[in-house]
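Section 3.1: Structural characterization of target chains.
Under the original work plan, the team committed to producing a structural model for every single-chain target entering the pipeline before any wet-lab resources were allocated. The record below documents one such target. The sequence was received from the expression subgroup and is listed exactly as submitted; it comprises 304 residues.
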Amino acid sequence: MTLKELKESLEDGTFTPTTMIIVSEDKFIPLMYLNEIEKRHGYSLVYVDSVEEIGTDVDDIFGMGSAYGNKDIVVFNTDKVDFCSENILKESNVIGVANSITDEASTFYNNILIKVPKIVDWQLQDMVYSYCKGVNTKYLDWLLKECGENIYRLYNESLKLSIFQEADRPMLFESMDEDGAFDDLTSNTIFNFTNAIVKKDLPTIKSMYADLKSMGVNDFGLLSVLYTNFMNVVSVQMGVSPTAEKLGMKQNQFNAIKYNCGRYTNNQLVNIVRMLSDIDRKIKVGELPTTVVIDYLIVSILSM
């Protein structure tokens, strides 16, 4: 399977598990494909710590057979593929992700190897257009130019729009166009919810909880917004003589963030930021079910 064939199968819904090793200098694209496979195609990703675990008989807790189900895909993540495993070739549901591969291993895995070239402009454009569907492409082209080659920033900014309904995205983008960034003080549900958490506004959190659960929001998008909000509080509350100019913020945004300072101690803020990063990791490796992310966020932050 080629990279193009993999992409097309994910888009048109024809994807079926097949063993492959995806090599990319930057793992961003392979990890996005894994997220797509899990989120939109209903497969469970089972991460293994070592390739030696692949192909071995793993019984379920009752000793009745394989612990892996029909919708499970075994994933290994490594910096360099410098091994040749017959067990991997025998499997039909293994995906490996690596930064590099030796010539010997490249020859050995030739039939299942997908090499991702350096990310180019059309790939970035394709990602942004997909996540931000509904927004005029001239504004999306502006976002691409604004973020340059920083694909992680581009991804995070795109996610801020993707968590909203398509009809609401143009208005949100206009706000970003005016202020130079997506408006963190918007009245939309996601931002109101994250702001309520930052403010420890329990009545608002309680009243919005059911609506948020029913929206089916993107977990990574919600984490991105919440992480950004808390990092803004960290910058203002823990900074040395912070000002809107020093932090590159609009004055009204700075004032609103400053108003929220003091609701958490400095130590609590540091722990919250660390916790949000850890939640991101837990979701990606399958340690935290996406069905409980919102509950886990609320309990973890407000219990600090």
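Confidence is low (pLDDT under 50) at residues 57-69, 179-188.
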